[in-house]
Design brief:
The complex is a heterodimer of chains A (198) and B (341). Chain A has helices at residues 18-27, 62-66, 92-96, 132-138, 150-154, 165-179, 188-192, and strands at residues 4-8, 37-41, 49-53, 72-74, 80-82, 160-164. In chain A, 26% of the residues lie in helices and 13% in strands. Chain A has 7 helices and 6 strands. Chain B is elongated and about 115 Å long. The chains are: A alpha+beta (198), B mainly alpha (341). Chains A and B meet through strand 2, strand 3, helix 2, helix 3 and helix 7 of A and helix 2, strand 1, strand 2, helix 3 and helix 4 of B.
Amino acid sequence: MARMKFLCDADRCIECNACVTACKNEHEVPWGINRRRVVTLNDGKPGERSISMACMHCTDAPCAAVCPVNCFYTTADAVVLHSKDLCIGCGYCFYACPFGAPQYPRVGNFGSRGKMDKCTFCAGGPEADGSKEEYAKYGANRLAEGKLPLCAEMCSTKSLLAGDGEIIAQIYKERVVKRGYGSGAWGWKTAYRESIAS
Amino acid sequence: MRTRLAHIRFIIGALALAFVVAVAAPAGAQDRNPDGSVNPTASAVNEEQLLNALRGGAVSGRVTIPDQKAATLIQPEGQVWRDFHEVTLRWIGLIAIIGMLILLVGFYMWRGMVMIQSGRSGRVIVRFNGFERFIHWMTATCFIILAITGLNITFGRPLFASAFGSEAFTTWSQWAKYAHNYLSFPFTIGVVVIFLMWIAGNIPNRTDVEWVKQGGGMVDPSKHPPAYRFNAGQKMMYWIVVLGGTAMAITGYIMMFPFYVTDMAGMQFSQIVHGVVGVLFVAAMLAHIYIGSIGMEGAFEAMGTGTVDENWAKEHHPLWLEEQKKGPAAGGARPMATPAE
């Protein structure tokens, strides 16, 4: 089995936000929920870099560790998923997550949070693969269809890579060697405790 | 002569310029690759460098969506909070609550129930009127439910999640969360009313010094230290409820209205305060419940029927009894207008 990861090559990202739009459209994510976003560091200054960020599907995921009802689980592909039937909307995963991935729909008045929503690596949830219930709660299950996450598939500069960690790391390393520079795989140190030498 | 001087000046100037260029060259070379082409990553940083430079602070940038929380790319503080929630809080809670239970069981085995030494007189005196008892029991009921549902968030998963099964545990936790959120309102009202209605008897004074010196009568059963309506121990309990309750209410409402008044660090800090004060609060209340029930003869009825035996009052609150006997007209510190039921 593969160990699925995301890798954003910040030296290629042009902040077009196509990944964000692709994600929203593929999963019909409601307004205000952002499973993926593009963050620009040093905006307008030398060394400006944009990074597309979503759930990194961490090794030893902090969200899963702090969840009071144990609603998270890790698939055979090392994708971190959760059950909306078990989530109680306490918000703890958002306090622990290094990447701000968990999102909550606002239900009712005040700040009351509904069931948490986050990037599923296009792998749905605990319901039967490709079922209506799964789509309604978690969006499309592309992985079950043999496809990779749409955000990375649609990336026009192929900055965002998704797939087996070893393969995408290899692609990135080859790029760095060929072009002679690379500002690293953002989030890898935090999510996987490893970095790709550039 | 003049041309020669100008010539020397020119040479010196040229040398100086060459020196400046030579010194500056290595710095400029960083922007260029060895072959002279531009290096686009010259001023870009990578994750590890930036995290080290920020020393545990968050990596933030700019986003084009309305949710500005999303501008934080990486927040390492979450790991610190995770460690607190998973390890530190559980240890503080275990030590405080289990420690208090051991202490109470030990104390009960040593001293047993503190009896009314002179026996019951058969005459009773009003200690808490109906309103006071209503507020006490409203707050107490809320507290017990808040405590159980609150402890469930920290200790429920390791203790019960596998035994109950995830479905059942989630159903319980969901209702527990609703109960925790909604009962916070009557609890907060209770704490405010308790603060106002008992503040007069709970200002620390010299009698308390004497009471503490005599160990509150806990060490030597024959001794009964002086006390007005509330002794130093009860005053301590009062201030734990007032200050602890206030801290719990403030941090609780911050968490109930997430990110309304504070940022990520504020939310994490609120949870830390809420957790630590919460488990200490539970430990303190265990002691309160003990001394108000099996710990002391004649104590429960003060909050039960609202009256206490005169001999109980004589032994535990002699100065208060004197005040009451003199009556409010004679200058009692706190008039008790309520008739006995």
